[in-house]
Amino acid sequence: MDYLERLRRLAMNAERVGENDFVRFDLDSVPVVDPKTMALSRIAALIAMGGAEPSFGSLTDAAVSAGATAGEIVDLLMGIVDVVGVPRAVAAAPQLALALGHDLDEVTDERRTGRGWAP
């Protein structure tokens, strides 16, 4: 099924579109978009909708596995702030940090005591 047919089916009446009409893409099955771009797009969508913490972990893992760096993931967050709004970005920042293996509370505490790194 080509992209226009998929769009037509979605547009005609989403309530009548069945589960079988959707193809669950894994990151290697998208023919036009490379896996890294798809993984980063999924993180952006998750941020936009205010997704749950476990989802940040799994999608961030998928993005890193597809070749995204932690810096690129943070750049993505910064790049969509004016689209999703500051509150969504602020809510997503600690969840992304945890998904990347960092606890922002520990970083803040280390800065206050002078034990950690400084910007």
Regions with pLDDT < 50 over 5+ consecutive residues?
none
Number-wise, the strands total 0
How much of the sequence lies in strands comes to under 5%
Global Rg: 18 Å
Mean pLDDT: 81
Characterise the protein shown here.
This protein has helices at 3-12, 35-49, 53-65, 70-79, 81-84, 86-99, 104-113. It has 119 residues and is mostly helical. α2 runs antiparallel to α3 (53-65) and α4 (70-79) packs antiparallel against α6 (86-99). The protein is globular and about 50 Å long.
What keywords describe this structure?
119 residues, mainly alpha
Compact overview of the structure:
Helices cover 64% and strands 0% of the residues.
Summarize the topology.
Elements: H1 3-12, H2 35-49, H3 53-65, H4 70-79, H5 81-84, H6 86-99, H7 104-113
Helix pairs in contact: 2-3, 3-6, 4-6
